[in-house]
Design goal:
Tetracycline Repressor, domain 2, 3-stranded mixed beta sheet, 63% helix, extended
Length: 447
């Protein structure tokens, strides 16, 4: 039965914790998955959470701490002694252990490293050489590899030995005497083949691998493109040094999606709803200030056309329509380009064709909207000249906003910035200024 974290369950569990009812807590959590316990502990402070964890087996504690997000785990581990952290980390896979050590202060990191199991320590030290956002920092050292000159029987025996230190494995990698990756063998082929058959005869040599320096996003694209559950990692000499599994890639994709969603919302830091008031304020304020600056520029710009406003005050009535339409068109255009840029198949060589398509769509949308607004204005205001001016201005704004929304993410991507910046307050502010400019310039020349 799937566990459901309800408010009633949290309150009941809180009562058990306050009463320090160890027996009842163990019974309640006996059949709960560690990932669900991690979600439950977000409702408690560090001291209460540690009390609960100390009641559980060490392996379960390690799984729970591994499931916590980076910020919560860093705060939580402050009340742990180095010896307690060492006992937990020794149960981690090498990549998870490296991630945790990167979150610790330098002095504590050295203490934990010195107390870890020798094999795990060597693996983690090797991983700590790499940045977190490349394949080398994403990979785990635990894998199963066999020699190309072995028989199937020797491979199966080696698998039994190595499988003790590998939680999940999807393939067996074949290497030469220098540990250079030659291919892979499926478990099905090993089980069904004659024990005396050389493994080289059933080895699949045409396999996908990634270099240690490849970015995590490129690794995710490769695994998604080829539908891989795991991918081997090789160094510059072609030697097998680790593997990346699908769960690591899911984390990368999730983090990327969260980052882009926050950028598109005008949030400049990675924050959660339950973070501190100051941190949430600091994350939201920069783009709000940019929006305020844009609004002040709009007001100043409107002052340049005071004469036109004095002649026909009705033109001011349509500024919200012009700004809102320009903002919406810009966001639509930029969102589609950001989506295309996220796809590995996007190429700039076809840019002319894309821009032609954008132009045609903008012309059709602009024509339809301007005719609609023209007809509505005639019915509501009976002002033929004003209706025509507003419709021409709206048509121009739609076309210009479409191109700004298209070009902005392309330029940002070329400059090395996240193009998702162009899908939120940034593009809205630009299009507000652009819309007013086009509107009042049109009014100035046609009125």
């Amino acid at each position: 039965m799937q566990f459901e974290l309800t408010r009633e369950f949290v309150e009941h569990f809180r009562t058990l914790v306050e009463m320090r009812n160890a027996t009842a807590i163990r019974e309640v959590l006996a059949d709960v998955n560690p990932a669900d316990i991690s979600a439950l502990l977000y409702e408690f402070n560090s001291e209460e959470s540690k009390y609960v964890l100390d009641l559980l087996p060490l392996e379960v504690q390690a799984d729970i701490i591994n499931n916590l997000d980076e910020e919560t785990r860093s705060r939580f581990l402050k009340i742990y002694s180095p010896a307690e952290i060492i006992a937990l980390v020794n149960l981690f896979n090498s990549d998870d252990a490296a991630d945790l050590l990167n979150e610790l202060p330098v002095k504590l990191r050295e203490e934990v490293l010195s107390g870890m199991d020798a094999e795990l320590r060597a693996q983690v030290i090797d991983l700590l050489r790499f940045e977190e956002n490349v394949a080398g920092g994403l990979m785990a050292k635990e894998l199963i590899k066999v020699r190309h000159d072995w028989t199937v029987a020797q491979c199966l025996e080696e698998i039994r030995k190595q499988a003790e230190s590998v939680d999940k494995f999807y393939a067996v990698y074949v290497v030469d005497d220098q540990d250079r990756l030659l291919g892979r063998v499926s478990l099905k082929d090993l089980v069904l083949s004659d024990p005396s058959r050389p493994v080289a005869e059933i080895c699949e040599e045409d396999i996908v691998s990634v270099d240690t320096f490849l970015s995590d996003l490129e690794v995710a694209d490769i695994m998604r493109k080829y539908d891989l559950e795991s991918v081997p990692v090789v160094n510059v000499n072609g030697q097998l040094v680790g593997r990346i599994t699908i769960d690591d890639v899911v984390d990368v994709i999730t983090e990327q999606a969260e980052e882009e969603r926050q950028l598109m919302s005008g949030i400049s830091e990675d924050v959660e709803e339950d973070d501190s008031v100051w941190r949430n304020t600091r994350a939201r304020l920069p783009w709000l200030l940019i929006g305020i600056a844009g609004g002040l520029l709009n007001a100043k710009f409107m002052g340049f056309f005071e004469a036109e406003l004095a002649r026909v005050t009705a033109i001011a009535f349509f500024t919200p329509l012009i700004q809102a339409t320009g903002g919406n068109v810009g966001i639509q255009s930029s969102a589609l380009i950001v989506q295309s840029l996220a796809h590995p198949g996007f190429v700039y060589d076809r840019l002319l064709g894309r821009l032609t398509k954008v132009l045609v769509i903008a012309l059709l949308n602009g024509l339809f909207l301007s005719l609609l607004v023209y007809g509505a204005n005639i019915l509501l205001f009976q002002e033929w000249e004003l209706s025509l001016i507003v419709s021409i201005a709206l048509f121009s704004v739609v076309v210009f906003a479409s191109f700004v929304g298209t070009f902005t993410p392309l330029v940002l991507a070329k400059l090395g910035y996240n193009p998702a910046l162009a899908s939120g307050p940034f593009i809205t502010t630009i299009n507000d200024l652009l819309g007013l400019t086009v509107y009042f310039v049109t009014v100035h020349f046609l009125l």
